[in-house]
Write a sequence for this structure.
């Protein structure tokens, strides 16, 4: 069941990717999403408590914003104990940044260390400019 849910999420993302990405609006900041793990999914959820318009990326007005993402990943048996099945985690992370600039591209990366998810926000020069904080996780 857990594999089925994650597979469905990954297929949904793959299906959306087939439609192509829109051209970035030069009057806004663009934030790409990137999962650093195989068998993981990263989705845009909210910008400042408003639902994201597309789960593949964020596009925001210049200024300060809070981004909320959903990160689904597998915790491998080597991090759990003597079991043969990975444990699937479904987490939300929040990233706040005060200086989004129009026409700039940013990248939000997520990964995990064992049960703990992490997220980092990078600018165009690949400099870390923000870190995510966990906003709740559950095992699926």
């Amino acid at each position: 069941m857990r594999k089925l849910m994650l597979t469905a999420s990954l297929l949904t993302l793959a299906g959306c990717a087939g439609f192509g990405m829109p051209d970035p609006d030069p009057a806004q900041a663009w934030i790409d999403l990137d999962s650093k793990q195989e068998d993981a999914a990263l989705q845009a959820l909210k910008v400042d408590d408003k639902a994201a318009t597309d789960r593949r990326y964020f596009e925001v007005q210049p200024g300060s914003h809070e981004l909320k993402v959903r990160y689904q990943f597998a915790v491998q048996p080597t991090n759990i104990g003597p079991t043969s099945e990975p444990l699937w985690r479904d987490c939300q992370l929040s990233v706040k940044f005060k200086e989004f600039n129009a026409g700039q591209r940013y990248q939000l990366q997520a990964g995990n260390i064992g049960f703990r998810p992490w997220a980092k926000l990078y600018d165009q020069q690949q400099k870390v400019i923000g870190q995510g904080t966990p906003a709740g996780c559950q095992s699926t």
About this structure: Residues 2-17 form the longest helix (16 residues). The radius of gyration is 15 Å. Helices lie at 2-17. Residues 10-17 have pLDDT under 50 and may be disordered.
